[in-house]
Amino acid sequence: MAALCQAAGLSTRQFYEEFRTLEDVLAALHLEVNGWAEQAVLDALAAAEGLPLAERVAVLFRAYARDVTSDPRRIRIAFVEIIGVSARLEEQRLARRARWVGLIRAEADAAVARGEAAVRDYRLAATAFIGSVNGLLHDWSAGWVDATLDEVVDELVRQLLGILRPEGWRAGRG
C-alpha cells in the first residue's frame, strides 16, 4: 500500500479517503480502462458512419485494439487482474462484458437493417467473439502470438465478418 501511495504521490490518508481497499482501486481501474476503450469505439463509430460493413468493422475494432493495447497495464487490468478476485468484481466484469455484447449486437442489428449482414440473434455470437478478442489480445500482449497488432486485428475482423456473413449468405437475402 505504501509503495502504491508513493507512486501515486498520495499519502495513505489521501488514499483511504478515496478507496477502502486495493480491490476498490482495481474496480475503479477496470471501469476506467473499459470506459476509455468504449469511448475510442464510440468516437470511431461516428467517424465510420456510412462506410461499408467490412471497413466499418475494421475501423471500430482498430480503435478498440489501439486503445486497450496502448499500455500493457490496460490489458492486464481488463483481461487478467479482474478475473477471480471476488464476487463483486466478477459481477462488474460480467456487466462490462454485457455492455460490449450489447454494442456488438446493436452494430450487427444495424448491419442487418442495412442488408449487410445475416438475420439472426447475435447474442451468443457476440459473447463468443468477445472471448476470442480477450484471449487473442491477451496472448499477443504476453508475447505468445507471433504477429503484429495489425495482423491480430485483421484476424479478429475476419472472424467477426464471418459471424455477420456466414458462408452462403448473400446481401438482400437476410
Comma- or semicolon-separated keywords:
0% strand; 8 helices; 174 residues; mainly alpha; 74% helix
Q: Helix coverage percent of residues?
A: over 70%
Largest sheet: none
Q: Mean of residue pLDDT?
A: 89
Q: Give the end-to-end Cα distance, rounded to a whole number of Å.
A: 56 Å
Please tally the helical runs, counting DSSP H or I stretches of 4 or more residues: 8
Given helix and strand content, the structural type is mainly alpha
**Strand residue percentage:** under 5%
Q: What is the chain-wise order of helices and strands?
A: HHHHHHHH
Low-pLDDT residue intervals, each spanning 5 or more residues: none
Shape: elongated
Compute the number of strand runs.
0
Question: Mind sketching the topology for me?
Answer:
Layout: H1 2-8, H2 12-18, H3 22-47, H4 53-68, H5 72-81, H6 87-113, H7 123-141, H8 149-164
Helix pairs in contact: 3-4, 3-5, 3-6, 4-8, 5-7, 6-7, 7-8
Question: How would you portray this structure in words?
Answer:
There is one protein chain. The chain is mostly helical. The protein is about 75% helix and about 0% strand. The chain contains eight helices and no strands. Helix 3 runs antiparallel to helix 4 and helix 3 packs parallel to helix 6. It is elongated. The model has no long low-confidence stretch (mean pLDDT about 90).
